[in-house]
Amino acid sequence: QPGLHVVATPIGNLQDITLRALTTLAAADLIVCEDTRVTSRLTNHYGISAQLLAYNDHNAPRVRPQILERLTSGQGVALVSDAGTPMVSDPGFKLVREAIEADIPVFAAPGPSAALAALAVAGLPTDRFFFEGFLPNKDGARANRLAELKTIPATLIFYESGPRLADSLAAMATALGDRAATVARELTKAYETVYRGTLVSLATDFAIADEPKGEIVVVVGPPVEEKASADDIEASLAAALETLSVKDAAAA
Ligand code: SAM
To answer: Of the candidates 188, 186, 125, which has an alpha carbon nearest to the alpha carbon of residue 157?
Structure first.
């Protein structure tokens, strides 16, 4: 089908691909991916022989016009990333925007994303959640970003890496307070491990543990209602009731 198809691919387990993703990829005139070596593992596994073209931060300005040309000429182009859903901490946004500007239809073939997989197993509130993705690398910039997130009344989702994890958890505990948190590692893969605790307990555990290997999502619960404010409410309620009973007594 002509148009740009945004196709989600597995985040580890190759079985996590939808039937529609497979038919869309097989029918595409071109598959645009981050790294042809990574995507060819998937296409070879499923016997898909469509042409692959690398599209990443380095070559995007040069390659994007070529892709748009093929879309304008009526071809079907599939956009995938190395893993999960394109554009979720991955390239593709400008391509989609320019396709829309050129009146090219854009379709989603939805599927896995590490953010939602981690939320699904975290055991933390899901009614509101905020996706932050990767925090900045530098300490100061990371602290500033965490300060911005502190008051958001929602569960927070971060992408992390093994080498940064212990430091990031400590920075989160300092900036956000000791909230409930979950570290989800290697989801859907052989060494999948989920650690549940609080920011302080997890920061302490990972500070002394070996550096965790593989891919990691950190999910942090929403701000806890300050106990002091609950006490304040109770105190003003008690004071109000006291005033009422004094008035009642005076009226009687
Ligand atoms: N587009 C992808 C998605 O929809 O999830 C995310 C791409 S981002 C460049 C890669 C990051 O996603 C990793 O550093 C890790 O934080 C997270 N991630 C990807 N696969 C994962 C997995 N199987 N288990 C845990 N985290 C994963």
So the answer is: 125
User: What is this structure's pTM?
Assistant: 0.90
- C-alpha triplet 167, 207, 215: angle, nearest 5°: 65
ipTM, two decimals, is 0.99
Pocket test for ligand 1, best of 168, 189, 216, 220 (most atoms within 8 A of CB): 216
Convert 190-208 to b/e letters by CB count within 10 Å (16 or more is b).
eeeebbbbbbbbbbbebee
By the 10 Å C-beta count (0-12 exposed, 13-18 middle, 19+ buried), 3 is classed as middle
The per-residue pLDDT for range 88-122, each reduced to its tens digit, is 999 999 999 999 999 999 999 999 999 999 999 99
Are 224 and 179 in contact by the 8 Å Cβ rule? The answer is yes
